[in-house]
Amino acid sequence: MRVLIVEDHEELAHTVAAGLRREGMAVDVALDGHTGLERASVNDYDVVVLDRDLPGLHGDEVCGRLAAGDRPARVLMLTAAGTIDDRVSGLGIGADDYLPKPFAFAELVARIRALARRTRPALPPVLVHGGLRLDPSTRVATRDGHRLMLSPKEFAVLELLLSARGAVVSAEQLLERGWDEFADPFTQTVKVTVSRLRRKLGDPPLIETVPQAGYRI
Q: What is the CATH superfamily name and number for domain 2-117?
């Protein structure tokens, strides 16, 4: 899962980003509305965590432009103003969810995961394929009842492949959705991660390489 945090309070932005990375998410940070909108226009994010009270380009304007665009990202709006009217107006301009500050980090994680499941078509809370079972909320993956000890990136790749429901996912798409903006597009990290993941999944093999296209389960 890839998340963009648009928050002008630098310490808060990087603290939240670090926490989300520990939850296995790929996270980018923007400290103002213009930068956030620019990054959201060129990268495919599952969720944008958007502070409403941004300097320069206000969060309302960013949210409205994101909602009017063709990017699939869901918007979770943050604000220090937590009245009912504030929440209603925030949802009215295109936000998918609304969380007042201060917030509990566990609730933020839960809301991000809930929004990420609201794709088209919607994904179930637990991804299952035969004896393979992956629960994003608990960060647990098992095969035939045996827990798989996966690194965060291996877990992310497996989640993306299962979410594709048999469709081919290219290496570029895996890099785009599973790594942050600092990932080298010419790296072999996706190939290496898939190779390690195959070994941990065991036999019979589950991940198929589709020549010149990518990977699928």
A: Response regulator (3.40.50.2300)
Provide the residue-wise pLDDT of the chain in tens; the chain has 217 residues.
Answer: 899 999 999 999 999 999 999 888 999 999 999 999 999 988 889 999 999 889 889 999 999 888 887 777 899 998 876 556 665 665 667 788 989 888 999 999 999 998 988 765 667 789 999 899 999 888 899 999 999 999 989 999 999 999 998 899 999 889 888 887 777 766 788 999 999 999 999 999 999 999 989 999 9
Contact 161, 207 (CB under 8 A): yes
CATH of 127-216, picked from 2.40.10.270, 3.20.20.220, 3.40.50.720, 1.10.10.10, is: 1.10.10.10
- pTM comes to 0.73
Longest dimension (CA), the chain: 55
